[in-house]
Amino acid sequence: MDDERSKPWGWTVSQREIIESLRAAPLLARLEPAQLERVAARTTRLTLAAEQSLFLQGDAAERFFLVCAGQMQLYRLAPDGARKVIEIVSPGQTFAEALMFLNRPSYPVCASALAPTELIAIDAADFAAMLRESVDTCFLLLGALSQRLRGLIGEIDHLTLHTASGRLARYLLERLPPERRALRLEVPKGVLASRLSIQPETLSRALRQFVDAGVIALEGRHVTLLDRPRLVELAALEPGLGPE
């Protein structure tokens, strides 16, 4: 990894702050204090500019990552160079950690920043060695990874069996819990469309349909929820709702 990506953050980050960032990540939250200190001591702090690459598909997977600020996209490249966005990673989330269980792993996707982003890079070999020393910790981590896998299977089901409107409705509902009525779409529409496995023009039509139906109000990237029950219906995909 080049020096530009590995330069210090723009603010002073203490060891304690690194530990707190690690503890806040669901995957790492159950580590013992001594384990958190060990992990923190072997981290590298990275900063990426918007659209800057972190790694490419096929690169040796020597580290996994925690997003502290900003946003990352994980994607695969088609033979024609088109990107298929697999996952959007937000602050508090980790990625590429499951690869530590493989022999001589390589990253199966590319990763780049969607916005200026700060990351903590964690040495995968050292983390795996720590897991071998603690069966309990290993099982806790495997449990967390299994839960994520179940979520991904559910997401695949949703993307393959539901309409474009249903996919968009679910995406919005996941980001609009009952106490919230507004959000800002943090990713470009092209990236969001790829993430939902639809064409950008289909996403635009679905958004316009929601606006025309009085489900949401849309101003630029700002979405205001007007009719939650109707959005729930759209997410449940009643027949005939919305474009394919």
From TrEMBL:
For this record, the Gene Ontology CC terms, alphabetical, are:
cytosol
Please give one Gene Ontology molecular function term for this protein: DNA binding
- Residue span, Cyclic nucleotide-binding domain: 27-131
Query: Pfam families from the entry?
Result: cNMP_binding, HTH_Crp_2
Q: What is this protein called?
A: CRP-like cAMP-binding protein
**Per the database record, which ranges form the HTH crp-type domain?**
162-229
Which UniProt keywords are given for this protein, alphabetically ordered?
DNA-binding, Transcription, Transcription regulation
InterPro entries in the record: cNMP-bd_dom, cNMP-bd_dom_sf, Env_Response_Regulators, HTH_CRP, RmlC-like_jellyroll, WH-like_DNA-bd_sf, WH_DNA-bd_sf
